[in-house]
Amino acid sequence: MTPVARRLKEKEQRRKAILKASQRLFSRKGYQSVSVEDIARKARISKGTIYLYFRSKEEIYARILMNDIEVFHEKLFDIIDESGTAADMLLQFSDFYVDFFLNDRELFRILMTFMLRADDLNFSEEMNKHLIRAANKSVEIVDRILEHGFKTGEFCNKKGLMKGRNVVWGLLNGIISLHLFAGKESTREKRIRSNVREGLEVFIKGLKTPVSSPGDTGK
Question: Which of 8, 68, 80, 173 has the highest CB neighbour number within 10 Å of its CB?
Fold first, then answer.
């Protein structure tokens, strides 16, 4: 390996070490309670070294989110089978979503902080917009699945698209949040998977039920 290649490799390793240390600290202490000094101590480097790679704590936080959201979407597009039914695609999406965050619980905690308390993070308007656009890709995937169901006649109430999208996200994030950091570790994964699956099956059944028109007596 040439000296230049070695330096580039070492630089990338330090950058990854900073992000890894930051992610753990943000997850355990919360964004506001973590300082650049804390990150430097955790990563075992100097505070000045961090500023060679990132301009601020905000940029570190945003980079963590962007990296993992990008990985999530790359993998997600590979597993969604658009030749199947919309119901199957929703279940595939939910299985992947649960798998992804069961394998990266710290990221889920950080992502929920951004989604629920973005105004407290002191991000620039440009950074907020960039992160929101990235996160919205997941919303667009759910919309596309629901639209597929309405278009093929598998689902009945197209007027409920936005409500349907909100139900999916509320169900997934609510159940994961409820169980991911509480209860017995030995049964946690099973509880999350079974509750998500059962909730989605009820939701899908509702989407397939024809909506009665005004004045319809059911006769």
Answer: 68
